[in-house]
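forwarding from the other thread:

> can someone predict this with 6-O-phosphono-beta-D-glucopyranose?

sure thing
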Amino acid sequence: QLEAVIFDLDGVITDTAELHYQAWQALADELGIPFSRAKNERLKGVSRKESLDIVLEDSPLPWTDAERLALAEKKNASYRQQLEQLSPADVLPGILELLDSLAQRGIACGLASASLNAPLILQRLGIASRFQAIADPAALQKGKPDAEIFLTAAELLGVPPRNCIGIEDAAAGIAAIKAAGMQAVGVGSPEQLGAADLLLTSTTELTVEKLLALFGDSGQ
Ligand code: BG6
Ligand code: MG
């Protein structure tokens, strides 16, 4: 039985996946490193530090840890500047309605985002109070595709993983949800998210009925 829905943030609740991409592209351009949307797919769901390591794979230079730290901070500063524009209008279509329907049915909501900026983003979107549990990525041993972040959110909610659904826009995220023993809902393309139990092309299609149907429950 469905007891909790655990959301990814960037690219599911709001389109910050695009802002992340723009900030990485700007950094890569500045450093003269080739970067593309195709490569950016590998950064989705991945921590800031690991994302930078992937961006720097195409650089011939041997970046030191201190230099890498400075570059990650630089990317984050330009990303956070973009976040200042964020408002409740930036919650993706269908998400507020879904949060409402889940609350009405007493289904808990959790957050499993790799972003250290997640609390700020939820606040700017005006939906922080909708989540009963937020897994802190800074406290984890392993990032997505490891199951840890989804398992942590479920534990904070006090719900067994088999009674949870995870919603993701990244391949690493779908892998993490499946490894956690949860039902995975992907929002995106079959090329990236083929492993999802339910694949939707946009958040407008996310309804509580579709989520309940994954548990063989029509909701009637
Ligand atoms: C994830 C994004 O949610 O958060 C990644 O999908 C990002 O692209 C990661 O790198 C870390 O985000 P932040 O805000 O801590 O740099
Ligand atoms: Mg995401």
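Residues 8, 10-12, 17, 44-45, 169-170, 173 surround magnesium ion (ligand 2) (CB under 6 Å). thats all i got for now
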